[in-house]
Design a protein that fits this description.
With 439 residues, the chain is an alpha/beta fold. It has helices at residues 50-66, 87-103, 122-135, 162-174, 178-184, 202-213, 236-246, 304-312, 320-323, 326-340, 349-367, 373-380, 385-411, 415-434, and strands spanning 6-15, 21-30, 38-44, 72-78, 112-116, 194-198, 217-223, 226-229, 256-258, 269-274, 291-295, 316-318. The protein has 14 helices and twelve strands. Helix 8 links the parallel strand 11 (291-295) and strand 12.
Length: 439
């Protein structure tokens, strides 16, 4: 468990917009195959290197174990700035990388299942699955070779917002624990809490959206090119519209702009959610963090020394391997959907609605009065795919948070250590039960 099981490094050429040839480097690391397939995203970033990919692959192993997703851990990356390439060039880069994975047996529904990460999305996953199918024409389960696909390519409803929603569910659970409320001095529930979020990509936006809908005040949001602050709360949809129009938060109406966005992390708040890059909270700024709860929505947003400083200050830290596991959880649901070749809810939705309608009719007859149409439709509504996905994610996060809380209390330790302990014990159980083939 200390080292990655398999590591792949590939290089291939691409002609840039100036007609010059760029040599592109890509990586894929498989940390553990104690359960297959292994699972982990593919990121496109100039910061990608072998050590980062291997570290994130190991994190995926523990993350999957914490939330009882039966996958091993993996991670991939291509060292490019995707903004510097055209759509056609990104397609060629993605397909070349996918081809290398196919050639080296680093992708497949039962072997290694990538997903989107920083710098990639539905389009890249669609290109990858199309490339895989070209070389595996007889694989009826080929759609399951990646997750995070568009709905039209076999994706699942609810995947886009899954990580942000998982962050919301996780923090909601911790705000119901007596020991957390006593330590922070907060009241139960989300309503009225002040929230600062670093990062306004997919995870940050959806986390902000769900917290806003639950009655929290999003008082500050930071991006790489600036931050905005309003103690009375920001309008998340209006902020998104402004950013899409202007490319920045600066001068958003009704807010104070902060040029150095990292300073937003130091704004006093109830809940701080770093949802951007690694190592954003470190020994240099940890002493100035004024949050009561830190929910790690990004991978590794806090250095070990900062973690120690903040724990000593009494801050409740909900670790990344637990809190941002919503994405891999719903990726698991998408993988199951692709293997079963049927949309969730398709086989039972109408039967469920028919059964509920019969029950409502019986109640109306017994009470001798009619239920309003709006109430009746709400009662008899059968679960759609997104309803089933969100219910499954809620149940997964609730159970994982409860297990982490239990271990933390029993071992008298912090939640990060407790989550890692739970993950290691689950992996240990798999190894012990399966034995060693070559012992």
């Amino acid at each position: 468990m200390k080292e990655c099981k398999n590591v792949l490094r590939v290089e291939f050429p691409i002609k840039n917009e100036h007609g010059d040839i760029d040599i592109i480097t890509g990586y894929r690391a498989q940390h553990s195959l104690h359960r297959v397939p292994c699972k982990g995203g593919i990121r496109f970033s100039n910061e990608v290197d072998l050590q980062e990919v291997m570290a994130l692959a190991s994190l995926m192993t523990y993350k999957c174990a914490v939330v009882d997703v039966p996958f091993g851990g993996a991670k991939g990356g291509v060292r490019i700035d995707p903004k510097k390439y055209t759509v056609a060039q990104r397609e060629k880069i993605t397909r070349s990388y996918a081809l290398a994975l196919c050639q080296k047996n680093f992708i497949g529904p039962g072997l290694d299942v990538p997903a989107p990460d920083m710098g990639t999305g539905e389009q890249e996953m669609s290109w990858i699955v199309d490339t895989y199918r070209a070389f595996n024409t007889n694989d009826v389960d080929s759609a399951a070779c990646v997750t995070g696909k568009p709905i039209s390519a076999g994706g699942i409803r609810g995947r886009t917002e899954a990580t942000g929603l998982g962050v919301f569910y996780g923090i909601r659970e911790f705000l119901s624990y007596e020991e957390v409320l006593k330590k922070t001095g907060l009241t139960p529930g989300i309503r009225g809490k002040t929230v600062v979020i670093q990062g306004f990509g997919n995870v940050g936006y959806w986390a902000a959206k769900f917290f806003e809908e639950a009655g929290a005040k999003i008082i500050a949001i930071a991006e790489h090119n600036g931050a905005v602050h309003n103690p009375e709360g920001l309008d998340i949809d209006a902020l998104l519209k402004f950013k899409l129009q202007h490319g920045t938060f600066i001068d958003f109406p009704g807010s104070t702009s902060i040029a150095d966005s990292v300073k937003a992390l130091e704004i006093p708040c109830d809940i701080l959610i770093p949802a951007a890059l690694e190592k954003q909270i470190h020994i240099g700024n940890a002493h100035r963090i004024n949050a009561k709860i830190i929910g790690e929505a990004a991978n590794g947003p806090m250095t070990p020394r900062a973690d120690e400083i903040l724990l000593n200050k009494g801050v409740v830290i909900i670790p990344d391997l637990l809190l941002n596991a919503g994405g891999v959880t719903v990726s698991y649901f998408e993988w199951l959907k692709n293997l079963s070749h049927v949309r969730f809810g398709r086989l039972n939705k109408k039967w469920e609605e028919s059964s509920k309608k019969m029950l409502v009719d019986f109640i109306e007859k017994g009470l001798n009065r009619k239920i309003g149409d709006a109430e009746k439709n709400l009662i008899i509504h059968g679960a759609d795919e997104v309803d089933i996905v969100r219910s499954g994610l809620d149940d997964t996060m609730t159970n994982a948070c409860a297990e982490t809380r239990k271990s933390a209390n029993e071992k008298n330790t912090d939640y990060r250590t407790a989550a890692l302990y739970n993950a290691i014990m689950k992996i240990k159980a798999v190894y012990e039960s399966s034995g060693n083939l070559f012992a």
